[in-house]
Request: fold
Amino acid sequence: GENVEQHPSTLSVQEGDSAVIKCTYSDSASNYFPWYKQELGKRPQLIIDIRSNVGEKKDQRIAVTLNKTAKHFSLHITETQPEDSAVYFCAAAPGHNAGNMLTFGGGTRLMVKP
Amino acid sequence: IAGITQAPTSQILAAGRRMTLRCTQDMRHNAMYWYRQDLGLGLRLIHYSNTAGTTGKGEVPDGYSVSRANTDDFPLTLASAVPSQTSVYFCASSDRGRPSGANVLTFGAGSRLTVL
Reply:
């Protein structure tokens, strides 16, 4: 089955700096890669996702890049703000016709210091 | 009800007891899932259901069972709880019929279970 590794497990940045979280996956059939944000005590919520036919996707201060050859994808947050502090999870799935089983990474705790 | 409702919010349980975590959604999503969240291990899939009447095993199914009698409800049962089942449990749902094929999960608020 799919195995998703996520690094780093914790990340501390100064407000205004950029943050990068990296994930690798093992199953070459995976073609859907979402990122979820979980604030303290809250439920995970989707913040951005990317399909395998796209190399990069951007939404305001967040962007995701995908390298299918190397089987890794990354989340980039620019101009970080204290409200970006949360646990971020990457995930991979084989796509529409394979049960849509999302396999999650272990999570990254991002702390943005004001 | 708006979205997914889980109950109870938290529970302390003696080892060996039976426990059912409830999950109800009102979005008419066809797929539902149970994940457990443990520190450093992310979210691990326990069981899933792609449509009412069907269920499947996820990554960590042992010690758990589910049923999907209708579209809205997807209870998770621990037949005989053990301390290693202490965790936060999240129910989620998705609409697998999305044209994009993207499996966007909507999560419930979670149920914190402590087994002593």
User: Anything to note?
Assistant: Chain A touches chain B at residues 1, 4, 6, 9, 32, 34, 36, 42-46, 49, 51, 89, 93, 95-97, 99-107 (CB under 8 Å). Chain A has a mean pLDDT of 92. The radius of gyration of chain A is 14 Å.
